[in-house]
Amino acid sequence: MELKKDWTTQDLYRPYQDWAPDYLENLTKTVKNSPWRFGYHIQPPTGLLNDPNGFAYYNGKWQLFYQAYPMGPVHGVKSWAHVTSDNLVDWQEEGLKLLPDSSYDSHGVYSGTAMPMGDQLFLAYTGNVRDENWERYTYQMGAFMNPSGEITKIPTPLIAEPPKGYTTHFRDPQVFPFEDGYLMVIGAQNEQEEGEVLTYFSHDCLNWEQLGKLNFTNEQMGFMAECPNLLLTDEHALLIFCPQGLDPAICAYQNIYPNMYVTAASYDKEKNALISPSALKNLDEGFDVYATQAFKAPDGRLLSVSWVGLPEIAYPTDKYGWAHGLSIVKELSFKEDVLYQTPVKEMRELRQENATTYTDEKLVTFDAKSNQYELQIDFETLASGTFTLLADEEQNHGMTITFDASHGKMKIDRSQAGEVFGEDFGTSRAFEIANEPLSLQIFVDQSIIEIFINGGKEVATLRAFPTEKQTQVHLQADAPFTTHFWPLRKMK
Ligand code: FRU
């Protein structure tokens, strides 16, 4: 099928049911012919996926939704697509669940969260609406999903307009139980066009009292704060959000928009403040993480999942009619007030065979045969070296990880990793790592790479689009290391 190229505003907002009956069928065929489809990551059946939404545990299953535009790899009118899982690694597609079909969300069911309430799952989301002059309206909406997966929208908004002094860039509600009620944390832009995180409180999830601006910094958080998430444990508070247009002097980043976090000792509702907040930090040192969503699971773990993709950037799969994926599920934890992100232990279920192990080597080369594997590499001393994945046989091409543990430096370069894209924002990322013997756990899945550094103290996530021949692994260092390699199975 000849893929649609020029998308007019009218195309982008055309109701799904107004597309020709065979349009999606043909698009599905085009997507099936795409290289770079994932084996074990969540991906859209067609079209575009962006933010994870509504991550929750309900009715004996993990529930996850994502922002979806099924008609093409563009930001058209959004719905929530739904996936469920028994084990956090095998995800079943449940289809589009929250559709832009009411006067409060006609131009997009935007991001939000979910939590169990009684025997239902409560969903909070933003309804995006445009009028005939393309003026934006924003409504904070609610819905209930029953155990059969059927959704009933609450007919009127939970919050009908932005508070006084704020623009209609007011979206992405996170709702969770707090004290004797519920807290809502939401992204906003004030009339001076500065990004802020606001909070609300409610006893019933229907009537919301405004608490105001969440205090956690004296710096200006860019022009808009998207997708805020506040996580509270007995000993810590963690705020994850996306400050668009942040001055890099406040915290350096190279992506078009960063996904950042602040840790704190606690949240004080009276002051509406994070107590002893840290400086802003990058959540991920790679190229392609945005809109990470996290929640406290009933088993006590803090679980997160990220959109692996960035707004306003073209990706090589666009020409096959789809774009982006979600990260694997990560567990968030604190050690001495430092945030760690690690793959959930359930990821081990994907390991296919006994590991191939190389012990005490300074040079290891092998053909992974397929770019769908896990690699663990551990040093006992401070070393430097270069690891090349997605390499061709001549080792001329590949994605390189260069490191120097004694100077605490790492650099990831994807300029030779296959089809190049996003060059405007650089083809390499250099960042600091701990001054300790390096340990890496790497998940490769066709065109997503997730690198967990030093037990998750740092994470670097990226997309790369290798040719079919680029399946070699080439590991070289100036001190011995031990490697385990596991081919990983597809998600069931
Ligand atoms: C972040 C975002 C959210 C919004 C959604 C729309 O990527 O812009 O702020 O709710 O995407 O798809």
Automatic annotation (TrEMBL):
Under the heading InterPro entries, the entry gives: ConA-like_dom_sf, GH32_Enzymes, Glyco_hydro_32, Glyco_hydro_32_AS, Glyco_hydro_32_C, Glyco_hydro_32_N, Glyco_hydro_beta-prop_sf, Suc6P_hydrolase
Q: Which Gene3D superfamilies match?
A: Exo-inulinase, domain 1, Glycosyl hydrolase domain, family 43
- Does the keyword Isomerase belong to this entry? no
SMART domains, sorted: Glyco_32
Task: Please state every residue range assigned to the domain named Glycosyl hydrolase family 32 N-terminal.
Answer: 41-343
The Enzyme Commission number assigned here is 3.2.1.26
Q: State the source organism's domain of life.
A: Bacteria
What the protein does comes down to: Enables the bacterium to metabolize sucrose as a sole carbon source.
Its family? Answer: Belongs to the glycosyl hydrolase 32 family.
User: Mind telling me which NCBIfam families this protein's record contains?
Assistant: scrB_fam
This chain's protein is named Sucrose-6-phosphate hydrolase
Q: Which organism is it from?
A: Enterococcus lemanii
